[in-house]
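lol ok so funny story. i was supposed to be doing the assay writeup but got distracted and ended up predicting the structure for this chain instead. priorities right. anyway since i did it might as well share w the group, maybe its usefull for someone
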Amino acid sequence: MYFEYQQEGIARLLGKNRNELVVPRYQRDYSWNTTQAKTLLDDIANCIHIENGKLKSSQYFFGNILLKGKPVDSDQTLEIIDGQQRITTVYILLAVIYEILKDIDDKSSATENLIELVYEKSLLYKSSEFEERKTLYIESSHNFFPYYLFSEKKEDREDLDILNNSDQSIKNVFDYFYINLQEEKLNNLLKIADKDFSYIELLTVIYYQLENLTVTIVSSSDGKEANSIFESLNSKGVPLEQSDLIKNKIFTELNTNQPTDIAQKSWTKIKKNLEKSKVGKLEFPWIDLDDFINIYWRANYANTTNSRIYYIFKQKVNDGQINPKDFIKDLELYSKEFKALYGDRTNFSISDENWDEINNYIELLVQSLQIKQTYPMILQIVHAFNVKLISEKTVKNNLKFMSNFHIIYNEMFKLPGNRLQYDKFARLIRNIINTSQYNDNTKKDITDKLSEMRKELSDKLPKKEEFNNIVKTILPNMTLTYTNKVNNSNNKKTKNIVFNYTILKNKKISKDDNIEHMVQDSKDDKTSWSIGNLIYLNKTINSKLKDKDLAEKITIYKSIKGNKDIEELLKTNYFSSILENKRELAFQNRQEEILKVIYTSVNNNKTNPQGQSV
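and the output, tada:
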């Protein structure tokens, strides 16, 4: 193994020999936050002292930096393999110092000298063609890093879209440094508030202390050797994320027999697929890479604790059970499909007719109830549909079953999730996909596994007699409320549950239906928020009902055709109880009925292959 090493102050490394430091898109994301930023500032402050009446910096070891390339050469692009968190954080700190200097009232020669040191020496360099370049470049899909650091106006910064965790970390660290490098806070940080040092002197000593943060630079021009050194350097101390270790293993293996740009392109696409995205007017959140890999691994390989995924992955690669090239391409495919868990149907071609219903079931499981045990199975159902091995109806009915099951199992009875084996069934389905020639038997094998899963789940619910005996004692402890009058964290969950119930009663919900409070929604009357006061009705009817009292609404309700839910309410004493000032009892009875209907739909173990109760 051939490599070179040298020691250098980290601020002096930036722009040295007109070299550009680069963090490629496929590398580890920036993940430091205000905790690490505070630690760095505290360490810097502890190194600064007063000597002969002047502020002085002192040397401080700041760890190892691993580069691909030769730092001793000039006009090179040096890829940061390890150390990008520290280098990026120091660069952000320098950018903050420059931001403060731009607006400072002191226009003395000391200020101009510091601006030259910070901006023209550390943040920028001039190439051999006299082209001005940033000394650190972080590849990304939208260049958030330079735009946020060097925006001319504060408003421009605030208008930037934050698409992933890395963007959020960059913003948090920049903002933290900006607040804590203000003159009063900096005096307190350095514990010299009683001394007569100018603001420029304080900022200047911070800069020189950054030059004295000494790193050991290990470099190699060979990508495979650099990755091997990376793994060796990180085998001790604080462990890296599983995704970083898996990526490094893939790159090392592929470098042996084929160009690593295959892996680099795939890894870049995976990260892009998990970023915050917009489709039309809809926005979808970013997804943590390690969370995704954990869910993918459980759906396709084993129910492994997060900290052991890399260890098992490495074993399987070494034993020839996993082909790194096939693995990363499969990971890329699933990363596209994973966005469906957060409502993005770009890579989940469900028809318009069924999308709202399917999306409601996924939303209930992922966002409202946050049943993480279901994520591998939802992902595998999306994948099985995309490879045309299950029908849209099968997707809809199995997600309906799962969401209704968890309304009872988790929301109502608070039963433990570790008793559920979604991972096992997800892997069984993937094994069928992997080992079969696609035909009608393949489709039947998958629907059979889904049927087994549903039966196993329904068997874990309390029996009907037990359910009926305890349902009334559980209801008072449930917070199923919905209101438009105040901010209410239960709104989404409650709306999802009413949606599920309405589908069971009416068989469908139109795009023109929305939720209605039968008794007027009131900020001051929390009983009106109860799930027992909610119903799905056509928007046109809802507009007629607006601002009417219940007696007037009942007249309109009687004219509605084809809505079994409202028809049954009119046959019972529900409305008369409310009019007789027994609304709490009426709402409680309706809530009980909603949960009983959902329970019955799940508790019926006799299901057809597509997952619909018969």
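DSSP finds 27 helices and 14 strands in the chain. The radius of gyration is 30 Å.
back to the writeup now i swear
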